[in-house]
TrEMBL record:
Organism listed in the record: Abyssalbus ytuae
Family according to the record: Belongs to the PNP/MTAP phosphorylase family.
Cellular-component GO terms for this entry: cytoplasm
Keywords of the record: Glycosyltransferase, Transferase
Keyword presence, Translocase: no
Name this protein carries in UniProt: Purine nucleoside phosphorylase
Pathway of action: Purine metabolism; purine nucleoside salvage
InterPro entries documented for this protein: Nucleoside_phosphorylase_d (IPR000845), Nucleoside_phosphorylase_sf (IPR035994), Pur_Nuc_Pase_Ino/Guo-sp (IPR011270), Purine_phosphorylase (IPR011268)
Role, per record: The purine nucleoside phosphorylases catalyze the phosphorolytic breakdown of the N-glycosidic bond in the beta-(deoxy)ribonucleoside molecules, with the formation of the corresponding free purine bases and pentose-1-phosphate.
EC number: 2.4.2.1
Length: 271
């Protein structure tokens, strides 16, 4: 990645009408319908944007959408990238850097995750309060990182406190169950063994997924306030582990999606 590439991607989007978005949104597995709420939308498919990776997961569509949501200009990633697709950390987080170059001041992230904390139930949501990076690398570990910001980034408060508090308030006002917990990010794409679920519980994870952490690290590198919410699509009880059907995960995420849309839309109104 070079600054020239980043500039080329950004200039292409500006030429398409992506004009000073205020808020960036990353939509997770089974959570693409928020895009339907966007007014005056302009779409750019990933394969048309210079230097952009391509989404290879069948249930992740690959486009960047610009428009208005809750009275604010937003840019939405409908379809994200994962390590398990064969991308490296710099590829996965490239769109965050592009959205930042376009002008976003806040970043909202959603994902689908498995519930390690057995007090959390399938279909519930969890506000990510902190995370554990188990992906074996960093999106900041590349030679010319200093051209993009400081190499050593403080992660004592990776998720923005103000936005977290607002989301908890919105959830309470709308009778939405929103737990607060620790998200562990793993490589995937295989799901965890019983022993791995036990391990994740021991190290302090409340939920596990295969995304989000690289994007959050880069947001912190860019000093971009970020908040993230997981839809809990399965219960990971190692003593009573059922086989997971990916189609069922998509369905659970889809049923919970209206709650996610409420949380994000009301938060955007407040920002």
């Amino acid at each position: 990645m070079t600054l020239i590439e980043l500039l080329e991607s950004t200039e292409f989007l500006k030429s398409k009408g992506f004009d000073n978005p205020e808020i960036g949104i990353v939509l997770g597995t089974g959570l693409g319908k928020l895009a339907n709420e966007i007014e005056n939308e302009i779409t750019a498919h990933y394969n048309h944007i210079p230097y952009f990776p391509l989404a290879t997961v069948e249930f992740h569509s690959g486009k960047l959408i610009f428009g208005e949501l809750a009275g604010k200009k937003v840019v939405v990633m409908q379809g994200r990238f994962h390590l398990y697709e064969g991308y490296d950390f710099v590829d996965i987080t490239y769109p965050i850097r592009v959205m930042h170059k376009l002008g976003i001041k806040k970043l909202l992230i959603s994902n689908a995750a498995g519930a390690i904390n057995l007090n959390y139930k399938k279909g519930d949501m969890m506000l990510i309060d902190d995370h554990i990076n188990l992906q074996g690398g960093s999106p900041l570990a590349f030679k010319n990182v200093a051209e993009f910001g400081e190499r050593f980034v403080d992660m004592s408060e990776p998720y923005n406190t103000h936005m977290k508090n607002k989301l908890l308030e919105i959830a309470k006002n709308n009778n939405i169950t929103l737990h607060k917990g620790v998200y562990a990010s793993v490589v995937g794409p295989q799901l965890e063994t019983r022993a791995e679920y036990r391990y994740l519980k021991i190290v302090g994870a409340d939920a596990v997924g295969m995304s989000t952490v690289p994007e959050v690290i880069v947001a912190n590198h860019l000093k971009l306030p970020v908040v993230a919410v997981s839809v809990l699509t399965d219960e990971c009880d190692p003593d009573n582990l059922q086989q997971v059907d990916v189609q069922e995960i998509i369905e659970v995420a889809g049923k919970a999606e209206p709650k996610m849309i409420t949380l994000f839309k009301e938060l955007i109104e407040m920002l």
